[in-house]
Amino acid sequence: MENGIHLKYGHIHGGKVAMPWTMTDAEVIAAQSGRFVFRNVTTGLAEIADTTDVIFGWAEAGVESSTSGLVVNVIVDLTAVFRIPLIYENSSYTVNFSAVIKGECCDLKISSGVQYADPTNPSTKQLLIVGGKAATGTSIIGNDGYLDVMINPSALGNLAVGA
Prior knowledge:
The chain is mainly β and about 160 residues long.
């Protein structure tokens, strides 16, 4: 990976093994947002993941105001590294990026329709932190921090047929 500031969110390097998957209706995908998805066990469709969801991959999708019937490529490669915005502010989300948190896990958080990496008190531990940039602001909106993450194999869904 190149050094310096990267403004691109999404797959930044590593493997790209993927499969086509249909998104559930009414999902909104923001421009500066993560695109980690989970499988809805009732419908079998992909949905944008939040804190407690068991993720299975990254949806390669552009900005979408509605995903009705949208088929996306979902990267399921455990060697892939993704860049996702960092949720950070002074009161609720208090862990900023530093070299100290490399190798630790974080969760996802959706705020105002944007999917962020949340390293503050992770419970699901969906993602493994491998790099990032510290946020310089103290509010969520317009924050410039990000984390580079990999899917944590220990947190992958283990669903059986019919589960």
